[in-house]
């Protein structure tokens, strides 16, 4: 009976809290429209447009909308009566951020009591209400206007702040992990709010955040499950492997994963794998502490057998007429894929020679796929692949998948060198290019680890609404600017700037928007500390109308599969390459060299490619690329080693200086 009373009491707390609000967030589901959403909340479409002006241009799945709750369901007078306000007339250059610091209140509270700020920016001359204190004696929900210091997620980041808390009654069998998970916090953050609480006791009241998961049940301990706190750089793939369950199972156990995996998140995970065996995740050798350790495989060579390597690339040899080299020369000049293949091949030859100088012999067989899946099938059917150690290539997705499928039964590794497309899950397929999704997540990880204490501003056009929503999930305190006609004014940007570090995240493929934003930021950088970042360095940044000098002054940072090679370190390589091929190596030649040398060194330091990942869980790095292969839940492996690069003012490119932070 006592347990039932506690549950009912908590339900009343949640109900009271919900009814006290005059707006809520709605996550758009598949098939929903503005009209259907307005009907479900019994409001007019114009009410939605008022607080979400961009919705007139369309809404997307998972986009968050501000929904005003009807006055009949609110208790605004109760809320107002317990809070005192001061009126403030907005002055020039004042921002929500500066006002929150001046009055020691959160930006969320400023918006809460000034609803128009959900739909538009702060305007000079307007008068807003600022909460100055609370007289509420409620024991159920406590709204704190005074910032509560909470410990940082990691030891290197400044502490974050929780500006709104509530009281939680501890239920029997509840744990700190379970409670933290319920309120979207880390255990360290929960302990920071309750420094005097060492051991939880049923019936105890503790302070928690107010971000309750909508569909999250009461969390209690269970003999079949335990709780795990997500570490930096971990992905759903690595967690799936660590705990021996599918990604779908993890998502079912943890509804919050629908919004994406985040560093510091507390997950409910099984104690046993699908075979009923106890999971010893301490012995797991995937992405973790070792993943950030650089491995030098040249010091571990112990397998001196000749390496059987097959190289499959599209050369289009069938287009060479008899005794007609000029014809093929024209083919090279006119077909980009052929040029890439030949450049890559030149790097492979350089890597084979380098391996030979280390005592590694290689038997290299080269086949022309002609970009044709039938050719790949024919090559494999008419040649003996029983003793092949690895296949490098084919270049494109379809031909690579066919090669992996045909060689899967022989367990011959097939390594795609360049494609960033997601491929089918063959257990022998290795994707050396992490792909767009992993690259984006690497930037999310970088931002979550380094953005604390920065004034973060997100600029995203309509086509980038999905990544905008994801960024706001990673950086909940970030402020947003919505471009108008692919333009952002310098004045609007200036209003957002602070005296400290300003990080501007720009998400767009529109050249006009990128150009206007970078130009305006460049002018503002004369008086402000500004860093420009993006999760996707697309072709817009390569346009002639985008000034590299502007990007350099803005310390432009972005994720990349490869970095710019150090001319001093690679001087001997460049000289050897130019002497052999009479031309300076490009990025495809360097990729061919890095990838092939990595494969040969892995084969020379283990029995096969698969064993090398178990023996050497860290990453390897060469002139332009690094490699750290992680198993995919669907099968096969993907390289998840990604650089975060910075364009400097002298137009050199280096790794971002706080990458290790």
UniProtKB/TrEMBL annotation:
Keyword terms: Signal
Protein name: LysM peptidoglycan-binding domain-containing protein
InterPro entries recorded: LysM, LysM_dom_sf, Peripla_BP_I
Residues covered by the LysM domain: 24-67, 86-130, 226-269
Domain of life, source organism: Bacteria
UniProt-listed SMART domains: LysM
Claim: Signal is one of the keywords in the record: yes
Signal peptide start and end residues: 1-20
